[in-house]
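Entry:
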Amino acid sequence: MRTQAVKDYIQEHQALFWYSPEDKRETVSDELLVETLINYGTWEDIHKLFDVMGIKNVAAIFREMKGRKLLNIYPELRNYFELYFNKYASS
């Protein structure tokens, strides 16, 4: 179940989800939320996401996404966040 803080966060960054109908934006998957913010968000946006969802939760979502055959995160960002999460959100 999605918290109100996450819903508010999505509303604050709704421009990043322009392709999604306005009434469906709050229902984007956690994977899509993390993927979109890593690819197109600012550093401040990502840190706010860590505050709202928790860095370990975001790291877990990111690591689960690595298993997909096609990962839509830019390779440079994927590498950076693999290193970042290994240092700051190790399990």
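The first helix runs from residue 4 to 12.
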